[in-house]
Amino acid sequence: MARALLLGLAGLVLVAGAVAALLLFFAGRDDAGVSGPQGPGLVLPDRGARHISPAERRSVRYDSEPPVSGPHVPVAVRRDATALSDDQILHALELGDVVLVYGTRKPPAPLRALANDVAGPFDPALAQAGQAMILARRPGTRGVLALAWTRLLRVSSPADPSLRVFADAWLGRGARR
User: Fold this and answer.
1) Using the 8-state DSSP alphabet, how is residue 112 labeled?
2) How far, in Å, CA of 64 to CA of 154, rounded?
3) Half-sphere exposure of 18 (CA within 13 A, CB side)
């Protein structure tokens, strides 16, 4: 009888230890901390996602070019591989889309391949759901800029592997609501 009691107690200690180990494991994976999620790209201040009228737009100044947060006129992106306004970019980022900005006439092939691989071909419905990788032409851009809400990554080559890391980290994670 004492042996059975000892075995039962040992089993209980073993189960309690396993539960404690699982709790510690999952607590360490929580990225919802007060300071916000960590990940690739330069972190810029969150200037909010307030929707404004076109008349209010003239007085707005941003922290970056192109901007990665701030008040904007909510304008949907209907197609990619074209020039997008700051309002279109901000609205896409607010929703959770990732925008890849390039300066050439046509998008570099590695960017198109990356966007298709990560999120599939551009679709306005996917963009509205915050699940699109959007290619945006901006003359004068050197290299590639990867944009997400409050995040900016600058790389010199459209084949840079950090673009995929950035997209995997931030696609679908827009402005806090």
Assistant:
1) H
2) 12
3) 6
Residue 166 to residue 98: CA distance in whole angstroms: 9
39: left (phi over 0), alpha (psi -120 to 50) or beta: left
Torsion of CA 88, 90, 92, 98, to 10 degrees: 120
Cite the beta strand spans of 11-137 per DSSP E. Answer: 42-43, 82-83, 98-102, 133-137
Residue-wise burial string across 120-152, b where 16 or more C-beta atoms lie within 10 A, e elsewhere: eebeeebbbebbbbbbbbeeebeebbbbbbbbb
Rounded average pLDDT per 10-residue block, the chain, 177 residues: 47 39 34 57 96 93 95 97 98 98 97 98 98 97 98 98 98 91
- Say which residues have a Cβ less than 8 Å from residue 71's Cβ, sequence separation at least 6: 47, 48, 49, 50, 51, 52, 56, 60
